[in-house]
Design brief:
heterodimer, A: alpha/beta, Rossmann fold, six-stranded mixed sheet, four-stranded antiparallel sheet, 9 helices, 16% strand, globular, B: alpha+beta, Elongation Factor Tu (Ef-tu), domain 3, 3 domains, eight-stranded antiparallel sheet, 8 helices, ATP binding (chain A), nucleotide-binding (chain A)
Chain lengths: 301, 420
């Protein structure tokens, strides 16, 4: 016995530690869940952290209303399988109530509007900790984010004034109205996520694997033709074999050309790719060089 | 499956640290084309002469505007042999705090010096902090060898000077590598420009340095983190104590004692979601069931009757102060988090401040300010179950929390129980 753990086992142990730490120290945590692969892995890890008990917190989907139907179907089935309680916070409802105003034009997206819906839901349900699936390898603003990331009473993140985080001692103290975002996947990379999905045999929404879809090119990305995207003049829809590397709002998430139909084939593709998943497929991160930092300061995921 | 190595890097921009990290990431294909293009575009628009790889990690607006690194950045890369997590810490003088943070979880610390300048104050400070945080392996990279004609004598002199300094520190494993991060000499492959160098390339060292024995596998320590009690008929009598093993090896059948109650029992089983296991060792997260019903809650510690940690409220420790807004003063009351226990602590005594450049002890001081390190005596409201930091980094460390602002204001490394 050499008492060595593989890197996936080490990452899993660290994530489970974080889940338990939050459950122990907070009154009302919630797990943010979109049906995207990172949140799927999060739910899997959370169930493992508390087995054989059921999940000691609900899961919440911030629903833009611009969904891939396959993902919603997957979400509902997964939540039932997990025996979890699902809270849906709806951007559409935020628009109806006048909390936010819908963007207009062919490039309109509800991405940014989600922040208000998320913060309203955290306030309404008095959640004091929200688990997010953010990873530090995703984006440079996230590379400096803490595992326990403090948010003030406005939900704001102050990157210049973060709590030092040492050893595995996480400081979750906060006042009423403030909350903590907890990131159990902080140290995972995209490849780790896929290797873990393969090792644990985790089912994903089908759109992560290659399928035929009608798409058109915008800003170098393949967007799906659908009810939430207006095809502009000069944009020519074509049918292609694609898959998704990330799953967000259907209006701003791009597909990549791919023939990978199994998790092993996806791993091969991820290992060989030379473009980050957000760079390849997320219009929301392309707005400016600090687009993620700006949204995170406002309270984004 | 490859294992994981966490390492901290220290050095200033001038030492070529960003270039070195950039090269490790680029050569292991962890930098992507879109990231490189974005950095190239920014460099060009700022009029930089060459692509500034620091922009890969300095992602915050304030950092880009001021051209400085303000915080620890975590970077990831992998080779077929290992997966690496880099805690990239800024080398600037006021950021001792970041180096301490980065080193707290590191298996290895990588200190860079510029071959043209040799050891400077900052190199000594970085080496000292790595030893204070008990980072098990230290690598001194003498960079920019290309600018000194790959001269062996220059390298040897720097190594000798560093060795003599390191003899005053607690450094177990010290390695020297002459490199040129810019040209790639001895970074991934052995360089043909330095035939006199008999060691391995830096990456080869990072891939092969033996870290498995760095953990304490002798003293069984299991801080109870969370109690699993399913309210379901299927698991009616289940009561599992969930936590992370931070020392030693636990096995079913082991006799154990629970602190602070002192009750003894036997491990009935060690469970995970994938089923029971025969052994649990650091850093596994498991759930322990005992053969008898004892009242146990979060913050308690399970260990072996013949090998127990110190139990006490009076603790001596080295503390690094991390707050700009306040200072540590004798008589202050402050929050403390140690393993899974939270309590309050009274600062009974502040013995001395350590000058991180000279290692000189300054006595008769009345406060520790930001980035200062000193020896303190604390009295806690409840007993803690602790080991010396040099014996166990998990049971020997704590953080201090300001009770008014909830900010983390200090990091502590336990020296031992206060001697009466």
């Amino acid at each position: 016995m050499d008492y060595e753990l593989s890197h996936l086992a080490t990452l899993e142990a660290e994530s489970i530690h974080i889940f338990r730490e939050v459950a122990a120290e907070f009154e009302r945590p919630v797990l943010l869940y979109s049906g995207g692969k990172d949140s799927v892995v999060m739910l899997h890890l959370a169930l493992k952290a508390f087995a054989p008990c059921s999940l000691p917190f609900p899961v919440m989907h911030v629903d833009t209303g611009h969904n891939f139907p396959e993902v919603i179907e997957y979400r509902d089935a997964a939540v039932v399988r997990a025996g979890a309680r699902l809270v849906v916070a709806s951007v559409e409802e935020s628009i109806r109530k006048g909390r936010v105003v819908e963007e207009t034009g062919p490039r309109a997206s509800r991405n940014r509007l989600q922040t208000t819906t998320l913060l309203d839901a955290i306030e309404e349900h008095r959640f004091d900790a929200a688990f997010g699936g953010g990873r530090r390898d995703e984006e440079k603003a996230r590379a400096k984010e803490r595992v326990f990331s403090f948010r003030d009473e406005f939900g704001q993140w102050d990157p210049k004034n973060q709590r030092p985080e040492l050893w595995s001692l996480y400081n979750g103290r906060h006042k009423q109205g403030e909350h903590i975002r907890a990131f159990p996947l902080s140290n995972w990379t995209e490849l780790d996520i896929w290797q873990y999905i393969a090792a644990e045999n985790i089912e994903l929404p089908t759109i992560y694997y290659a399928h035929r879809r009608e798409v058109f090119k915008r800003d170098g990305m393949w967007l799906a033709v659908g009810p939430y995207v207006t095809v502009m003049e000069g944009e020519v829809p074509v049918e292609m074999t694609v898959r998704y590397r990330t799953v967000g709002d259907a209006s701003c998430t791009g597909a990549v050309e791919s023939t990978a139909t199994t998790v092993e084939e996806v791993i091969e593709e991820v290992a060989a790719t030379r473009i980050t998943e957000r760079g390849a497929t997320r219009a929301d991160d392309r707005a400016t060089e600090a687009a993620m930092e700006d949204r995170k300061k406002e309270g984004y995921f | 499956m490859a294992e994981l190595l966490r390492f901290a890097t220290a050095g200033s921009v001038d030492d070529g640290k960003s270039t070195l990290i950039g090269r490790l990431l680029y050569d292991s294909k962890a930098i992507f084309e879109d990231q490189l293009e974005a950095v190239e575009a920014t460099s060009a628009s700022r009029g930089d002469e060459y692509t500034n790889l620091a922009l890969l990690t300095d992602g915050l607006r304030a950092e880009r505007e001021q051209g400085i690194t303000i915080d620890v950045a975590y970077r990831y890369f992998a080779t077929p042999k290992r997966k690496f997590i880099i805690a990239d810490t800024p080398g600037h003088i006021q950021y001792t705090r970041n180096m301490v943070t980065g080193c707290s979880t590191a298996d290895l610390a990588l200190v860079l010096v510029d071959a043209r300048h040799g050891l400077v104050e900052q190199s000594r400070r970085h080496a000292f902090l790595a030893s204070l945080l008990r980072v098990p392996h230290l690598v001194l990279c003498v960079n920019k060898m290309d600018l000194v004609d790959y001269d062996q004598k220059i390298f040897d002199d720097i190594c000798d000077e560093f060795r003599s300094f390191a003899s005053k520190l607690d450094v177990n494993d010290l390695t020297f590598v002459p490199i040129s991060a810019l040209n790639g000499d001895n970074v991934v492959h052995r360089s043909e420009n330095m035939p006199w160098y008999e060691g391995t390339s830096l990456l080869h060292h990072l891939e092969n340095v033996f870290i498995a024995s760095d953990r304490n596998l002798i003293d069984a320590r299991f801080p109870v983190q969370y109690v699993l009690r399913p309210m379901q008929n299927a698991h009616h009598d289940y009561r599992g104590y969930a936590g992370t093993v931070v020392g030693g090896v636990l096995k079913p059948g082991d006799d154990v004692v629970v602190l602070p109650s002192g009750f003894t029992s036997t491990i009935a089983s060690i469970d995970t979601a994938d089923g029971p296991v025969d052994e649990a060792f650091p850093p596994m997260s498991v759930s322990v069931r005992l053969s008898s019903e004892i009242d146990i809650s979060r913050g308690d510690m399970i260990c072996r009757p013949a090998n127990q940690p110190n139990v006490g409220q009076d603790i001596d420790a080295m503390v690094c102060w991390m707050s700009e807004a306040s200072s540590l003063t004798p008589g202050a009351k402050i929050g403390i988090k140690h393993t899974t226990r939270s309590a309050r602590a009274l600062v009974k005594n502040l013995h001395y401040r350590l000058d991180v450049n000279t290692l000189h002890r300054e006595n008769e001081i009345n406060a520790l300010a930001l980035n200062e390190i000193g020896r303190v005596t604390l009295r806690t409201t409840v007993p803690l179950f602790f080991d010396d930091y040099r014996r166990n980094r998990e049971t020997g460390s704590f953080i201090l929390i300001d009770e008014a602002t909830n900010a983390t204001v200090g990091a502590g490394m336990i020296l031992g129980p206060t001697q009466a």
